[in-house]
Design a protein that fits this description.
This protein has 16 helices and twelve strands. With about 375 residues, the chain is an alpha/beta fold. The protein has a single domain, classed as Aldolase class I (TIM Barrel). The chain has an eight-stranded parallel β-sheet. Strands 1-12 form a two-stranded antiparallel sheet. Helix 15 crosses helix 16. The chain is globular. Bound molecules: flavin mononucleotide. The site of flavin mononucleotide (FMN) has 23 residues, from loops.
Length: about 375
């Protein structure tokens, strides 16, 4: 198995290839493709490619670059956060605890999913860095309350409520379950190192946090309503983030319900094929609420230039899903660190080439978006 060094630069495709060689092929397909024909997941990526830079010639060497920023008052060393992903422990025994360790080492925030496979306590024990807890309404308000209590007790910085309709997906993200593992036998034996790790970790099929996993897996309803959102606002003292916003009207609703930040997200194309690419949704949402709360984005971020484009269009920072999933699959905590450092290198190089000293100098004048995209007033 490869041991990834965090200081060795690799592209997303290289991490992806390493991951494909390490985990069972069905699992790899599930995490990489997205729902249906994977069109939403693919278009998230392609939409970034449609944006081009307005590069300034002859501006000279920008000197030392500034990548650090704050998100909801927390300082981070670059505008990249680890996003919430369910079932991480099935991908590698290091799971969310490893992702949190890597995020902490990189000086950024790790968001853990309600269904990541490690409890908030386990993740907090593993990492001294800033943590966000993502919430689904598993087991209704009682289940949410338990998770929120744990997050509060362990000093999590923020709660992230996923408000996109997710329910049908969770059961199918990871098709390898205790009931059907036999049918995957042939591909599992082709991945002996993955299998050995999985066995050593005690067959951690559970994608639900330890603290609630003893109850039945995934009852419905799973998703958060605005009423739940308002209720959580009353019991959680820290910053509250609404994840899964694609329309300005919903962004406004989130702000009205007490959100301190929103994440423009289509769940990485995991829930519905046919949703718009997130970067395309960003400008109109910035127009609506950008002056009031911080706007984050995820979906399709694969390289540093994507991050620079998102920041130029008004995002405070981005969250990543598959990039770090691939690093984790390839080599656990080390792999996630390597992904984060490669992205840092790419952001830095993009700034140099743009002649920009700081991510804080970026604005819409640095990019051209296709004329076929609806052009919000602030870009004209
Ligand atoms: C395998 C997988 C599992 C996910 N699980 C969750 C989850 O439990 N909660 C959540 O809010 N988002 C979840 N997401 C969505 C991510 O948080 C994020 O929105 C998405 O991965 C970003 O797109 P990207 O993968 O193109 O970076 C998941 C995504 C993937 C690929």
């Amino acid at each position: 198995m490869v041991r990834l060094r965090r200081d060795r630069y690799r592209t997303f495709e290289e991490f992806e290839n390493l991951a494909a060689k390490r985990i069972p092929s069905s699992l790899f397909r599930e995490v990489s493709t997205g729902k249906g024909r994977g069109i939403t997941a693919r278009r998230n990526i392609e939409a970034f490619d449609e944006i081009t830079f307005r590069v300034r010639a002859g501006v000279g060497w920008p000197g030392k670059r500034e990548l650090a920023t704050t998100v909801l008052g927390k300082e981070i060393s670059m505008p990249v956060l680890i996003g919430p992903v369910g079932g991480l422990r099935l991908m590698h025994p290091d799971g969310a605890a490893g992702a949190a360790r890597a995020a902490s080492a990189a000086g950024t925030i790790c968001t853990i999913s309600t269904t990541c496979g490690h409890s908030p306590d386990e993740v907090a024990d593993a990492s001294a860095g800033p943590l966000w807890q993502q919430i689904y309404m598993l087991h209704g308000r009682d289940g949410a309350q338990k998770l929120i209590d744990a997050a509060q007790r362990r000093g999590f910085h923020a709660l992230v409520l996923t408000v996109d309709p997710t329910a049908p997906q969770i059961n199918t993200v990871l098709r390898i379950t205790p009931k059907n593992i036999i049918q995957y036998g042939p591909e599992l034996v082709r991945r002996p190192k993955w299998l050995a790790g999985f066995i050593k970790d005690g067959f951690q099929f559970a994608s639900v946090n330890q603290m609630i996993e003893k109850q039945t897996l995934i009852p419905t309803p799973l998703q958060v309503t605005w009423e739940d959102f308002a209720w959580i606002r009353t019991i959680w003292n820290g910053p509250l983030v609404a994840k899964g916003i694609l329309r300005p009207e919903d962004a406004r609703r989130a702000v009205d319900a007490g959100a301190d930040a929103i994440v423009v997200s289509n769940h990485g194309g995991m829930v519905l094929d046919g949703l718009p690419p997130t970067i395309r949704c960003l400008p109109s949402i910035i127009d609506e609420i950008g002056g009031e709360v911080e706007v984050l984005l995820d979906g399709g971020v694969r390289q540093g230039v994507d991050i620079v484009k998102a920041i130029a269009l008004g995002a405070r920072a981005v969250l990543i899903g598959r990039p770090y999933i691939m690093g984790l699959c390839a080599d656990g905590t080390r792999g996630v660190s390597a992904v984060l450092e490669s992205l840092r290198t790419e952001i830095d190089q993009a700034l140099v080439t743009l002649g920009s000293r700081s991510i804080h100098d970026l604005d819409p004048t640095y990019v051209d978006v296709p004329s076929t995209w609806a052009t919000p007033a602030r870009l004209t």
